[in-house]
Amino acid sequence: MTPALDHVFAALADPTRRAILSMLLEDDMAVTDVAEPFEMSLAAISKHLSVLTAAGLISQEKRGRVKWCKLEPDALREASAWMQGFGQMGSIDLDAFEAFLARELD
Predict the structure, then answer these.
(1) For 71-86, how does the pLDDT look when each residue is reduced to its tens digit (9 = 90+)?
(2) 57 phi-psi bin (left φ>0, alpha ψ -120 to 50, beta other)
(3) Domain map of the chain by residue range?
């Protein structure tokens, strides 16, 4: 795996970050709107957004005084191609795969 792919899987390992990506599937969102459904501080959400940005999964830009987040779906292309390679070996036990990633990323 490439270092970029490592960052993508590390970012996807956290349920909060996966939820943020799901929210951004709909449309670009202001950081404050991203933070609204979560019971954590804006600083904690900003850390999650930084991880997603570093992995290339989202981009952030300032529009006026508001910081906006945008999904970058192309960043998942390499991860998707890597996982599809496992499809040739039969069905994937995604729970086991998630446990494996959690052990590897800790």
Answers:
(1) 998 888 888 888 887 7
(2) alpha
(3) 3-104
User: Which tokens sit at 38?
Assistant: 């979560």
Provide the residue type at 11 as one letter. Answer: A
The residue to which tokens 């991203």 are assigned: 34
The pLDDT tens digits for 26-42 are 999 999 999 999 999 99
**CATH for the stretch 3-104:** 1.10.10.10
Picking from 97, 95, 60, 75, the residue whose alpha carbon sits closest to that of residue 2 is 75
Q: Among 5, 89, 4, 71, which residue's Cα sits nearest to residue 34?
A: 71
The dihedral through the CA atoms of 34, 70, 25, 52 has a sign that is negative
Residue keyed to tokens 């494996």: 100
Question: Are the beta carbons of 75 and 94 closer than 8 angstroms?
Answer: no
Q: In what order do the strands lie in the sheet with 66-71?
A: 29-30, 66-71, 58-63
- What's the whole-model pTM score? 0.77
